[in-house]
Design brief:
single chain; 171 residues; alpha+beta; 7 strands
């Protein structure tokens, strides 16, 4: 995880996004070895041609007709951000519970449907992993900010600032 210098820019604080590596972080090793971040909802199928929130919503509605409206809204929001809103060169974070570290990386490409990598999490984005930050090095406030139950979520500006500062200082 070298080459962290210029890819960790303080100017992109509001776009630090957490992408969970499956329930309990069980796919953190695969995220690292495949140089990806990924999300589930495989029932939605390949979303490469889904260009709008409405396109993704109709796929989810067809795949999950039994879900309540709020469940669908939550899935839609996360999948839409993951596929359409995360930008190339944006910083992402995931947690590896086995090592008790947060992995910080930079998105290097567009959405791809890759069930061959992690079948449970087929919606992927390529990532260059830059650094690791010990969970214990973070303030209580930053750890609390990272405690959302969502799969995909933005980190507060204050926590982003702390995480990026630590990432730049770790040798």
């Amino acid at each position: 995880m070298a080459d962290r210098g210029s890819t960790l820019r303080a100017g992109r604080l509001s776009s630090l996004t957490v992408i969970r590596a499956g329930g309990g972080g069980i796919f953190a090793e695969e995220f690292q070895s495949c140089n990806i971040v990924a999300v589930g909802w495989p029932e939605a199928g390949n979303l490469a041609d889904a260009l709008t929130r409405e396109d993704i919503g109709s796929r989810l509605l067809a795949a999950f007709p039994y879900c309540r409206k709020m469940q669908l809204v939550s899935m839609l929001g996360q999948l839409y951000v993951f596929k359409c809103k995360i930008e190339i060169n944006q910083s992402v974070l995931t947690y590896d519970p086995m090592e008790r570290v947060y992995l910080i990386g930079t998105v290097t490409g567009q959405y791809a449907y890759r069930p061959d990598l992690i079948s449970e999490l087929p919606h992927t984005r390529p990532v260059k992993w830059i650094n690791r930050i010990s969970r214990d090095a973070l303030s209580l406030e930053a750890r609390n900010c990272l405690g959302s139950i969502r799969t995909v979520f933005s980190v507060s500006e204050e926590a982003s600032r702390e995480i990026l500062r630590l990432a730049r200082s770790v040798s």
